[in-house]
Design brief:
Layout (H helix, E strand, L loop, with lengths): L1 E4 L9 E5 L4 H10 L4 H16 L20 E4 L15 H10 L1 H8 L2 E6 L2 E7 L1 H4 L4 E4 H7 L1 H7 L10 H9 L3 E6 L9 E6 L6 E2 L2 E6 L4 E9 L7 E3 L2 E6 L4 E10 L3 E11 L4 E10 L2 E4 L2 E4 L5 E10 L4 E10 L5 E10 L4 E10 L7 E10 L5 E10 L5 E10 L2 H9 L4 H17 L4 H15 L5
Parallel strand pairs: 4-8, 7-10, 8-11, 9-12, 10-13, 11-14, 12-15, 13-15, 14-16, 15-17, 15-18, 16-19, 17-20, 18-20, 19-21, 20-22, 21-23, 22-24, 23-25
Antiparallel strand pairs: 1-2, 2-3, 4-5, 6-7
Length: 461
């Protein structure tokens, strides 16, 4: 069903189309709005059938308060709104104000190779610097890429994460919209990051962007993703999907900061496959959201491939941060490092799970996992749940975990030097997270530290 409504946005953006009620007509309308080929509609309808046949996860965080009948699956700005632009001056004025408050134009000018932005279901801006485009780097929004690079999309789209993977992968396959497509040709080095910003803006909104990144052999990529959403009194849903293919002798760095409001269920899926001598680095910051289920995965398919997975999570009042890193060692002489740091306060729940699977073929595979947690009170929870499956006797797996409270001596020292207790704690927390945060570009690290400071406000008393 198509609804017309102009009042369900936190900004002054007006909409013509709100698609609620997940059914075949909704799926067909989304496909039609994005002008998709018939094969994509077929994939959507198959995904919808799988979604309808799979139950909600019964383990891990409670999803009983997520009412999928109330979610807006597609939102389109009103007719006449300039909702997509490749030139900054052409962006809708209200959207431009939001981007300017976030500092995105300055970031693009100073240190980005290109930038994109998505509001609700639609990309509103996408641009890559000319010198990067001249090297045949492709950086487009997914619906546009489906038109211009259809055969390439067909080869890779939802092959790493098929609809049958889990219920929300199936949901994503049925209703995905927007997202980012990146292609880096063989031998091309992209050292400056590309960036995409995703804003979920509608009341009871859903966002289902699809990110597809292909790094050919002997190439290098760098991508940063920022996500946010306003707070409403109804649940919102984010069920994006990220697929990354890293070719032989190639490197890819993917950084993500998720700072959605505490009425949002963040049920995101991210997966990468690495060929021979490839390297993949994940840097994830998880804040906000009432419930997070986010499990990045690296599949070390090629010999001598390597991955580093770095993550931070902050769980406050009413929040359940359930994060998981997965590494599957298949090739010979593969290696992986997992570092997770979390904070639980005001009754928040932080759970870190990891799966390290070493296949029979993975001779001399090596993994090291480190998980550190800080608890701020007696009502908060921190869980660490390892899962190690080693099918090769030459595999080496080491893991360590620690949990504790903020050091009272450190607080005393900092307050004796003139800081109030809240600022002292914020400084300690930033230090605790520093090994992960420093992996971001300087400007982004500074912004993430500010977000952490905001999360820590009110932690004293």
């Amino acid at each position: 069903m198509t609804l017309k409504n102009t009042l369900e946005s936190s900004d002054n953006i007006q909409y013509d189309i709100f698609l609620k009620w997940l059914n075949e007509q909704t799926v067909r309308t989304i496909s039609q709005e994005q002008n998709e080929p018939e094969r994509m509609l077929e994939l959507r309808l198959k995904s919808l059938k799988i979604f309808q046949d799979i139950s909600l996860p019964s383990r891990w965080p409670d999803l009983s308060k997520l009412n999928l009948d109330e979610i807006v699956y597609y939102a389109k700005p009103k007719s006449g709104t300039q909702w997509y632009a490749t030139n900054w001056e052409d962006v809708d004025p209200e959207i431009k104000k939001k981007f300017q408050r976030l500092g995105i134009p300055e970031a693009e000018q100073r240190y980005l190779a290109g930038a994109g932005g998505q509001y609700d279901s639609l990309n509103v801006y996408h641009k890559i610097k000319e010198q990067r485009a001249a090297k045949w780097i492709i950086f487009e929004d997914m619906p546009q890429a489906l038109q211009t690079h259809g055969e390439l999309i067909k080869k890779y789209f939802m092959k790493l994460v098929p609809a049958a993977d889990h219920k929300f992968a199936a949901l994503h396959g049925a209703v995905w919209s927007g997202g980012t497509f990146i292609y880096i040709p063989k031998g091309v080095i992209l050292d400056e990051p590309l960036q995409a910003y995703f804003r979920m803006n509608t009341y009871a909104g859903g966002q289902f962007e699809h990110t597809l990144i292909i790094i050919e052999d002997d190439a290098q990529g760098n991508y940063i993703e920022w996500c946010s959403a306003p707070k409403y009194d109804k649940a919102s849903l984010h069920a994006g999907l990220v697929e990354i293919y890293v070719g032989k002798n190639s490197k890819m760095k993917y950084s993500s900061v998720e700072n959605r409001s505490t009425n949002t269920y963040n049920l995101n899926t991210k997966r990468a496959v690495l060929e021979e001598h490839a390297y993949m680095e994940w840097v994830n910051g998880n804040m906000g959201s009432c419930t997070t289920m986010l499990y990045p995965c690296s599949i070390l398919k090629g010999d001598r491939s390597k991955t580093d997975m770095l993550g931070i999570a902050v769980a406050g009042k009413g929040q359940n941060q359930d994060t998981w890193s997965k590494v599957i060692h298949i090739g010979k002489n593969t290696s992986s490092t997992i570092v997770s740091k979390s904070i639980s306060k005001d009754g928040g729940i932080s759970t870190y799970r990891w799966l390290v699977k070493i296949a029979k073929s993975a001779d001399n595979a090596v993994n090291h996992t480190e998980c550190d947690a800080l608890l701020f009170d007696d009502i908060s929870v921190s869980n660490t749940i390892p899962n190690i499956v080693c099918g090769n006797e030459s595999g080496i797996v080491a893991h360590e975990a620690s949990a504790g409270k903020v050091d009272e001596g450190e607080i005393f020292y900092l307050t004796s030097r003139g800081l109030d207790e809240e600022k002292a704690i914020a400084m300690i927390v930033n230090g605790f997270f520093s090994s992960v945060v420093k992996k971001l570009p300087l400007e982004y690290a500074g912004e993430l530290n500010k977000l952490i400071d905001l999360e820590m406000e009110g932690s004293v008393g």
